[in-house]
Structure to design on (127 residues):
């Protein structure tokens, strides 16, 4: 059975918004060396080679997992809700002390780098 295009996209590295779970594998040095050679042959990372090999084995064995229910909230909405929730954790007076040019000059406020000059109307900021 040939996997559909959607199934192909779902495999491999998890995409933004997908739940991820770390999995550890214990092996002898010789086995890990074989895995590294396979990753090199496939021109990918050791992690990606492991994901591919396990996916191929699951396909051969006919192992399928039921599709998870689609999220009722799109990722952008949930991220915006998270930002709003975090911003409400600080008291309102704390936000008064936040510099108005923080996004433009974060390197200055974090590391002491020189501030960037504000562009004049109609000009782009230089980088």
């Amino acid at each position: 059975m040939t996997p559909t295009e959607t199934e192909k996209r779902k495999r491999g590295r998890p995409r933004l918004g997908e739940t991820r779970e770390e999995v550890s594998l214990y092996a002898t040095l010789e086995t890990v060396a074989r895995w590294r050679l396979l990753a090199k042959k496939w021109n990918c990372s050791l992690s990606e080679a492991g994901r591919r090999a396990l996916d191929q084995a699951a396909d051969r064995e006919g192992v399928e997992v039921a599709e998870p229910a689609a999220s009722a909230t799109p990722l952008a909405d949930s991220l915006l809700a998270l930002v709003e929730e975090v911003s409400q954790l600080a008291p309102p007076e704390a936000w008064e002390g936040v510099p108005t040019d923080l996004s433009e000059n974060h390197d200055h406020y974090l590391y002491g780098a020189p501030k960037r000059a504000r562009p004049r109307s109609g000009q782009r900021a230089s980088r």
